Amino acid sequence: MKTVRSLSRVLLKTDLRDTSTIIMSFVFPLVLLVVLVRAFGTMPELPGMDFVSPICVNVLGFGVAYVGIFAGALHIAQWRENGMVQVLRAFPLSTGAILLAQALVGACLALIQAVLLIALAVTPWIGMELSPWAPLGIVPLALGYLTFYFLGVLLAVFVPSLAAVSMLANLIIIPLGYAGGAMMPIELLPRWVQNIAPYTPFFQMRVALSKPLIDLGTWGDAGLGCVYLLVASAILLPLAHRFFRWK
Known about the structure:
The chain is an all-alpha fold. The chain has helices at residues 2-16, 19-40, 52-82, 84-89, 95-121, 138-158, 162-180, 191-196, 201-214, 219-243, and strands spanning 44-46, 49-50.
């Protein structure tokens, strides 16, 4: 575990010094939140509730999913391309330890991002109202992060180049976010998109987050969303560990 902690510290320092990581992990979600609230925040949704709080939940979930898929994909793809994987092989590290270290670093970035988004969202300028159960939102956030992290690892394993990994990660996360209601309220999407939305991981994370964070939906739906994400993570984890190799 000492080696894992050391590797995690190195990776975290590297990410925090990388301008593109800072922009995509922190600046982009904050800007997206402001843009979506200003665009859709005045539209009525339910009696006594406007679009603001659901939009904040959507952006929070999308941001964590974005961090997750890129945390799993980019470093591993970069290590394979520049030969760092072979260097790490000389150290007392298993492939599982490397995946754990990178997962911890991505989780730190996701946590910082979530805190920043919530801090902005609850200001009078945005107007999100948190429920008393808001701390329970950490459960679907963690499960959603892991689902997309392991998906990112599989991308890095099977896609041959760093550029292709980055492109495919965006091609996966943006359509999934759109279909799941991240880019605009699900009620405004075409009917066929609304029909496939419940089968997407982002939609389930959004549903699982909405009840504890803003008291929207039911605990049953939130529980089913968590089960969906847990099963997805349980399927992707052994696949990521199995196919990640020292080459």
